[in-house]
C-alpha cells in the first residue's frame, strides 16, 4: 500500500502554528474516522444481533463500503487502493445478502471483537491523549507567562530558579505528551486499515465456513482475493510495528537531544549565538499600547519573509505583516522591567515595535538577523540601480505588469490572418492607450466602442425605452421583453433555489457567444481597466439561482437589483486560474438600430467556487428545459383527449339521429297499413285525432326524408 501521511515528531518542541494547523487536519481526520467507524460498527452490530434481518444488515454494510470513496478524509492518500479493495468486499457481501442466519459466536470472535477493540481502545486512547496534551499546553503557556514577567531589577534567585524549573518541567511534559499524541495519531492511520479490513475478513471467513458456500465458483472466485487481503493486513501490521519501533526510538533520541532546549535561557557556552542568519522564526512577546501609559504583551509566532517581519497567532491560517524591515534600525532596549527586549524602528521613524525574546541568545539572534536583512538589499546596488528600480515600480503601479498580460495570454483566440486592432472609443482610458492594452483588444469577441460598466445598471434597450416613453411614464421597462405585471414574484414551488454571495466587477457588450473565450476576454479587459484606474470598489449582492431566472438581491434591503430570465443566459463559465471569478453572457430582448440583439457579458467574483455557480445555472436550465418539455407533452395530451372527446360526441349525435330516423320510419310503416274488418263484420273507424296523428306522422316522415 502507499505511504502513510505522518505528523512530524521532530517539530513538536518548536510547536509552531504550522505544526498546530497540521495537527488540526489529523484531528479532523480522526473525527471523520470515528464517525465512519461508528456507522460501520452499527451495521455489523445489526448483523450480529438480528439473524432474521441479516439480509438487510448485510446490504447496509455493502452500501457503506461502496460509499467509502465518497467520504471526505483530510488524510486520504491511499483512498484509491482502499476504495478498490472495499469495492471488492462490497460485491461479495452483496452476493451473501440472501443468507438469513449467521453463527453468532463466529461473528462475535471474528468480526465484532476487532472493531470493538478499535473503538473502545484506540479511539478512546487518542481522545484521552488529546485532553492530556491540551492540559500540558495550557500549563506550559502559564509557566512561560510567569517566566516572562520575571523582574530584571529585583532579581530573586530562589524565585527565578523556581520559575525556570517550572518552565523546564512544563515544557518537558508538553514535549513528551505531544510526541506520544503525534505517534498515536500516526499509528491511527495503520490501525484504521487494520480495523477496517480485519473485521471484514473475519466476516467473510465466518460466512463461508458456516453456510457451506464452498461451491467451486464461489471458492475459486474469492478465496484468492481473501488470501491477498489477509496478506495485506499482515503487511500493514508489520509495517505498523516497524514504524512504531522507529517512532519510539525517534522520541527517545529527541528527548535526549532536546534536554538543553527545555531551559528558556540556556547557558551561551552550551548553545552559541549565530549572528549570520538571514531568516529566523520563533515566539516573541509584542508590546501593544492600550492607553497613554498602559500596555499589554501578547505572545505570537514571528518570522521573517523577504524584507518583511510577519506574525501569526495560533489558529490563524496565515501570517500578517507587522512592518517592513528594509533599511530599518534595531537595538536592545529596557521596557517595563522586562528582560531581553529589543525595538525595531522603520527607516522613516514613523513606526516602531518593541518585542521580547525568551532568552538572551534569541534576543541577540533576532537583532543580528534583522540587521542582516535590513542591509542585504542595498549591499550590491549602486544609486543608479536603486533609482531605476524605483522608477520601474512607479511605472508598474500605473500600467499592467507583464505577468498580468501573460496570465491572460491563453484567453486570446488566434489572431493570424487579420491585423491587430485596438478599441478606439474606450471610456475607461484616460488619454492614449498603452501598447499592451491595444494588443489585448479583440474586436472579434468584444464589441468596439463599448464602455465598461463598473456599477450594476439594467441593460434597457432602445426599443423598450421608446415604448416606455410613448406608453406609461415613470415605469421601468423590462429589458428582456417580459410584461411587468404578469409575474411580480417567482413561483414558490420552484425545484431549485440556490443563493451565492457575489461581487460585481463589471459588464461589457460582446459580439460572439459561441465559446467561453468571450467571457475570458471580458474578464481580462475588466480586470486590466480596474488595475489601471485603481478601481477597487465592488458591489456585493446575493445571486439567487432558480428554474425561472437569476436574481441579484441587495443583501441589506432584500430588494431585487437585477433579474435575468434563465432563457436569456446563453453562456456561463469560470476563470481558468482564479476559480472565484465567473461570468455569464445575456442576450436581451431589445435591439439596436440594425435590429441585432444586444449581448452583454457580466463578470463577478464569488466567495465560492465559480464552477459551482456555473453548474447551478446549467442545472437550472436543464430543469427548466425538462419542465417545458413536460408542459408541452401535457398540453399535447390534453388536446388529443379533447379531440377524442369531440369525436365521441359527434359519433354519439350521429347514432342518435339514426335511431330517431329508424323510430320515425317504424311509425310511418305502422300508420300506412290498410284497415282490417272486425270479427262481427263491421269496420274499424279511425277517430279524428288518430287520423290527425297519422297525417302528422306522414308529414314528419316526408320531412325527414327530404332532410336526409
Automatic annotation (TrEMBL):
It is a peripheral membrane protein. The keyword Coiled coil applies. Signal peptide: none annotated. GO terms for molecular function: identical protein binding. It is found in: Cell projection, Ruffle; Cytoplasmic vesicle, Phagosome; Early endosome membrane; Nucleus. One of its GO terms (biological process) is signaling. Coiled coil: none annotated. The keyword Iron does not apply. Keywords: Cell cycle, Cell projection, Coiled coil, Cytoplasm, Cytoplasmic vesicle, Endosome, Membrane, Nucleus, Phosphoprotein. SUPFAM superfamilies: BAR/IMD domain-like, PH domain-like. Pfam families: BAR_3 (PF16746), PH (PF00169), PID (PF00640). It comes from the Eukaryota. PANTHER family: ADAPTOR PROTEIN, PHOSPHOTYROSINE INTERACTION, PH DOMAIN AND LEUCINE ZIPPER-CONTAINING 2, DCC-INTERACTING PROTEIN 13-ALPHA. This is DCC-interacting protein 13-alpha. The lineage of its organism: Eukaryota, Metazoa, Chordata, Craniata, Vertebrata.
Amino acid at each position: 500500500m502507499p505511504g502513510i501521511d505522518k505528523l512530524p515528531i521532530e517539530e513538536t518542541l518548536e510547536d509552531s502554528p504550522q505544526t498546530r494547523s497540521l495537527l488540526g487536519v489529523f484531528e479532523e481526520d480522526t473525527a471523520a474516522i470515528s464517525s465512519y467507524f461508528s456507522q460501520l460498527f452499527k451495521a455489523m452490530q445489526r448483523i450480529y444481533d438480528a439473524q432474521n434481518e441479516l439480509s438487510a444488515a448485510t446490504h447496509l454494510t455493502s452500501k457503506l463500503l461502496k460509499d467509502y470513496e465518497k467520504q471526505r478524509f483530510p488524510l486520504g492518500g491511499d483512498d484509491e487502493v482502499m476504495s478498490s479493495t472495499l469495492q471488492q468486499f462490497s460485491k461479495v457481501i452483496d452476493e451473501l445478502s440472501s443468507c438469513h442466519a449467521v453463527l453468532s459466536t463466529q461473528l462475535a470472535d471474528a468480526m465484532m471483537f476487532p472493531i470493538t477493540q478499535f473503538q473502545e481502545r484506540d479511539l478512546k486512547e487518542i481522545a484521552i491523549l488529546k485532553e492530556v496534551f491540551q492540559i500540558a499546553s495550557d500549563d506550559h503557556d502559564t509557566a512561560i507567562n510567569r517566566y516572562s514577567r520575571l523582574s530584571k531589577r529585583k532579581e530573586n534567585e530562589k524565585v527565578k530558579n523556581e520559575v525556570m524549573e517550572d518552565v523546564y518541567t512544563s515544557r518537558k511534559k508538553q514535549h513528551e505528551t505531544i510526541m506520544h499524541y503525534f505517534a498515536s495519531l500516526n499509528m491511527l492511520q495503520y490501525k484504521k486499515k487494520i480495523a477496517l479490513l480485519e473485521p471484514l475478513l473475519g466476516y467473510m471467513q465466518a460466512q463461508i465456513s458456516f453456510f457451506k458456500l464452498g461451491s467451486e465458483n464461489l471458492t475459486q472466485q474469492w478465496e484468492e482475493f481473501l488470501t491477498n487481503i489477509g496478506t495485506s493486513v499482515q503487511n500493514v501490521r508489520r509495517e505498523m510495528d516497524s514504524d512504531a519501533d522507529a517512532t519510539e526510538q525517534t522520541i527517545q533520541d529527541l528527548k535526549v537531544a532536546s534536554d538543553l532546549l527545555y531551559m528558556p535561557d540556556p547557558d551561551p557556552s552550551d548553545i552559541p549565538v549565530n549572528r549570520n542568519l538571514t531568516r529566523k522564526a520563533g515566539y516573541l512577546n509584542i508590546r501593544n499600547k492600550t492607553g497613554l501609559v498602559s500596555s499589554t504583551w501578547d505572545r505570537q509566532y514571528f518570522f521573517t519573509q523577504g524584507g518583511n517581519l510577519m506574525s501569526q497567532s495560533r489558529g490563524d491560517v496565515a501570517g500578517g505583516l507587522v512592518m517592513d524591515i528594509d533599511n530599518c534600525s534595531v537595538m536592545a532596549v529596557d521596557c517595563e522591567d522586562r528582560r531581553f527586549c529589543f525595538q525595531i524602528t522603520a527607516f522613516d521613524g514613523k513606526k516602531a515595535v518593541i518585542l521580547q525574546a525568551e532568552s538572551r541568545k534569541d534576543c541577540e539572534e533576532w537583532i543580528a538577523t534583522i540587521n542582516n536583512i535590513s542591509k542585504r538589499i542595498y549591499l550590491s546596488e549602486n544609486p543608479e540601480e536603486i533609482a531605476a528600480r524605483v522608477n520601474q515600480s512607479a511605472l508598474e503601479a500605473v500600467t499592467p505588469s507583464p505577468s498580468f498580460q501573460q496570465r491572460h495570454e491563453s484567453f486570446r483566440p488566434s489572431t493570424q490572418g487579420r491585423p491587430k486592432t485596438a478599441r478606439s472609443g474606450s471610456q475607461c482610458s484616460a488619454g492614449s492607450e498603452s501598447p499592451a492594452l491595444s494588443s489585448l483588444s479583440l474586436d472579434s469577441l468584444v464589441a468596439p466602442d463599448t464602455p465598461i460598466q463598473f456599477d450594476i445598471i439594467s441593460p434597457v434597450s432602445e426599443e423598450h425605452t421608446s415604448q416606455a416613453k410613448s406608453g406609461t411614464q415613470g415605469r421601468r421597462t423590462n429589458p428582456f421583453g417580459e410584461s411587468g405585471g404578469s409575474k411580480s414574484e417567482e413561483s414558490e414551488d420552484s425545484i431549485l433555489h440556490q443563493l451565492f454571495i457575489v461581487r460585481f466587477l463589471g459588464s461589457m457588450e460582446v459580439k460572439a457567444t459561441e465559446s467561453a473565450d468571450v467571457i475570458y476576454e471580458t474578464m481580462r479587459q475588466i480586470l486590466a481597466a480596474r488595475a489601471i484606474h485603481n478601481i477597487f470598489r465592488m458591489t456585493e449582492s446575493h445571486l439567487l439561482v432558480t428554474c425561472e431566472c437569476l436574481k441579484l438581491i441587495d443583501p441589506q434591503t432584500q430588494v431585487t437589483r437585477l433579474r435575468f430570465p434563465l432563457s436569456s443566459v446563453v453562456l456561463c463559465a469560470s476563470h481558468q486560474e482564479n476559480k472565484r471569478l465567473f461570468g455569464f453572457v445575456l442576450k436581451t430582448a431589445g435591439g439596436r438600430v440594425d435590429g441585432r440583439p444586444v449581448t452583454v457579458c457580466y463578470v463577478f467574483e464569488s466567495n465560492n467556487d465559480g464552477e459551482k455557480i456555473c453548474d447551478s445555472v446549467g442545472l437550472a436550465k436543464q430543469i427548466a428545459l425538462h419542465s417545458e418539455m413536460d408542459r408541452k407533452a401535457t398540453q399535447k395530451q390534453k388536446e388529443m383527449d379533447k379531440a377524442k372527446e369531440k369525436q365521441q360526441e359527434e359519433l354519439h349525435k350521429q347514432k342518435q339521429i339514426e335511431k330517431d330516423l329508424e323510430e320515425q320510419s317504424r311509425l310511418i310503416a305502422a300508420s300506412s297499413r290498410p284497415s282490417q274488418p272486425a270479427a262481427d263484420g263491421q269496420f274499424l273507424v279511425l277517430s279524428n285525432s288518430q287520423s290527425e296523428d297519422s297525417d302528422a306522422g306522414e308529414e314528419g316522415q316526408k320531412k325527414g326524408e327530404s332532410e336526409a
